[in-house]
Specification:
Blueprint: E1 5-9, E2 18-23, E3 37-43, H1 57-64, E4 69-74, H2 84-98, H3 100-103, E5 105-115, H4 117-128, H5 142-145, E6 149-153, H6 165-172, H7 176-179, E7 195-201, H8 210-221, E8 226-231, H9 260-271
Parallel strand pairs: 3-4, 3-5, 5-6, 6-7, 7-8
Antiparallel strand pairs: 1-2, 2-4
Length: about 280
């Protein structure tokens, strides 16, 4: 395994260090010489107040076990404000594409995955990647930062009736009233938004399922392919829903919803095929 810490942004007076931890498959000359794999870049949740361990390494290892390169982005949270975390995610995607030859990444298959507020972050890149006015500062071209797909797990999406206001206030600070409508992402979906896998639980009282439903409706309206799963049970922040991401007190254990990662893996293989026995690797 190529397990490295990649600095995205040095620590400043306003924010902690932002970095990416990689969980990449090493090349095997014996088994799969030159094989390139899609990469899944994971944004943990935490209400833009912190980044949760529940939605980090366990998730990375689960999807690495399916054959994907994975990485976890520890992005800046409050008191850092928008667009700090979005710039960091954009930079992380550009690094994965820039070093695709070194890490044997399929350059056209960089997928962003986000949980809760991390879902808002991932979806923000998905809807804003071709908005040059947002990315003048880091001087990144749209193609450098464009995700090929998104996996959004109980995501924060709307700042309206069903919004998780703590996330928006931590993200926007004193600019909350000014920017909350723009960052209500169901209003920003376009035909250029990447294909998306979404899932949620009906029992989620923290980030209600209407968040993902509003985003799904916007995707459908814009002709963007999407797959959606809604499970009846499971409180907010369940991670994988099994013992790998459950807390010591049993929080996060949701057997009703723990099949979501298997469903997502099937979606990935269908939408981003990368390996067929006997086929030449490219």
């Amino acid at each position: 395994m190529i397990h490295e810490k990649v600095i995205i942004q040095e620590k400043t007076d306003q924010s902690e260090e932002a970095y990416m931890i990689t969980y990449f498959w090493e090349e095997s000359k014996e088994l799969y010489p030159g094989q390139r794999r899609p990469v899944i870049l994971i944004c943990p949740g935490g209400a833009y107040r912190m980044t949760s361990d529940r939605e980090a390494e366990g998730i990375a290892l689960r999807f690495m076990a399916e054959g994907y390169h994975t990485a976890v982005l520890r992005y800046s949270t409050a008191p850092a404000r928008y667009p700090a975390a979005l710039y960091q995610l954009a930079n992380a995607v550009s690094i994965l594409k820039e070093k695709s030859d070194d890490w044997l990444i399929k350059k056209d298959s960089v997928i962003v995955m986000g949980f809760s507020a991390g879902g808002h972050l991932a979806a923000s890149l998905g809807v804003f990647w071709n908005r040059p006015e947002l990315f003048e500062k880091p001087e990144l071209s749209p193609e450098q930062i464009r995700p090929a797909g998104m996996i959004l797990s109980y995501p924060v999406i709307t700042s309206g009736e069903y919004g998780h206001q703590e996330s928006f206030k931590n993200l926007l600070g004193e600019r909350y009233e000014e920017l909350k409508d723009m960052l209500s992402l169901e209003k920003q979906v376009s035909p250029d938004t990447p294909r998306t896998f979404l899932w949620h639980t009906m029992e989620d009282a923290t980030v209600p399922m209407e968040n993902s439903l509003l985003f799904l409706q916007a995707l459908r309206h814009n002709g963007v392919p999407a797959e959606y799963h809604l499970f009846p049970y499971g409180k907010h922040g369940v991670g994988l829903g099994n013992s790998l991401t459950a807390g010591e007190d049993g929080s996060g254990f949701a057997p009703c919803a723990d099949c979501w990662s298997m469903l997502a893996a099937k979606w990935l293989l269908r939408e981003f095929p990368w390996w067929t026995p006997g086929r030449e690797f490219r």
